[in-house]
Design goal:
single chain, 297 residues, alpha/beta, TIM Barrel, 11 helices, 43% helix, globular
Length: 297
């Protein structure tokens, strides 16, 4: 019998405010985050920002087992447009892939950025884009050698943000896609249409919704991504403008094997218990959305 959507739904540490973006905000401890994931019924989690969980794969697996969790994979920012950095970046990728693989991870999620400490979006020339495409193909090879799979993640403020960039990667590479329902929406891509036309290219689905008012302020440059997140850019599932039911229904018909990740990007300004509880309430509300979807099928 096929697993329900809830049984194929992993957690992501960024839902608890753990993020690799420089200056993102206060970071909860691994024990706090993993304990809450387990209490809410999750069986799998993503890796979180590099350094959040143990680097040693065996130790990582031990920490996760202590909380009744397994590793699905993880999101890693990568610099691919600069050939001079290629060797260093591939060594870094191979190291993280090795950590994830030895802990039982399945998916390495790449996000090409301008610099690890400076997520800007300069215009790339053809040679730089070719370096990005070649880098993604190289990561495909690195992950395959470790028994993992690789998917790229379009993301606000990364080098692959808008619809043209996303489709260029799909056309120029064989790399799988992370269908992030919110970041694609923010970049001008219709995730429902993309899921319909490229269902065979989807590796993972990152589920989150978008508040239209906050999104418009982000697009106009009034606020940064972190500021938008703090102001509710990603509300609980079903409370924003993304056509999540349509997207999930279509994917469940064409790709019932897919894993999903509940990834409601959050940012904490400090260790305020009320703010942490607010994040948790959002997770609970999103889980109700997923459970209602399963019941309606």
């Amino acid at each position: 019998m096929a697993k329900s959507l809830r049984e194929r739904l992993a957690a992501a540490p960024i839902t608890w405010g753990v993020c690799e973006v420089p200056g993102w905000g206060y970071q909860l401890s691994p024990d706090e985050v993993l304990s809450d994931m387990a209490a809410l019924g999750f069986t799998h989690t993503e890796f979180g920002s590099v350094g959040f969980l143990p680097a040693d794969g065996n130790e990582l697996a031990r920490v996760l087992r202590r909380h009744g969790l397994s590793l699905l994979g993880g999101f890693v920012a990568v610099v691919l447009h600069d050939p001079d950095r290629f060797e260093f970046e591939m060594e870094r990728v191979a190291s993280v892939v090795g950590q994830m693989a030895s802990a039982g991870g399945t998916w390495f999620v790449s996000c090409p950025v301008f610099d690890h400490d400076d997520w800007q979006r300069p215009r790339l020339d053809d040679a730089q884009w070719n370096s990005v495409f070649e880098g993604l193909a190289a990561i495909d090879d690195v992950t395959a050698r470790s028994g993992m799979r690789h998917a790229f993640h379009p993301h606000v403020d990364s080098l692959i943000q808008d619809d043209i960039e996303t489709r260029a990667v799909l056309e120029q590479t064989d790399t799988k896609l992370v269908l992030d329902t919110a970041h694609l929406t923010l970049g001008g891509t219709d995730p429902a249409a993309l899921a319909g036309s490229h269902s065979d290219r989807i590796g993972l689905v990152h589920l989150k919704d978008v508040d239209a008012t906050v999104a418009q302020r982000l697009r106009c440059g009034e606020i940064s991504l972190m500021g938008a997140v703090q102001q509710g850019l990603f509300p609980p599932l079903g409370q924003g403008v993304v056509r999540l039911t349509e997207i999930i229904r279509g994917l469940e018909q064409s790709r019932p094997d897919l894993w999903y990740v509940l990834e409601q990007d959050a940012a904490l300004s400090g260790p305020d218990a009320d703010d942490v509880e607010r994040l948790r309430r959002g997770v609970v509300q999103s889980l109700r959305f997923v459970q209602d979807f399963d019941l309606a099928r």
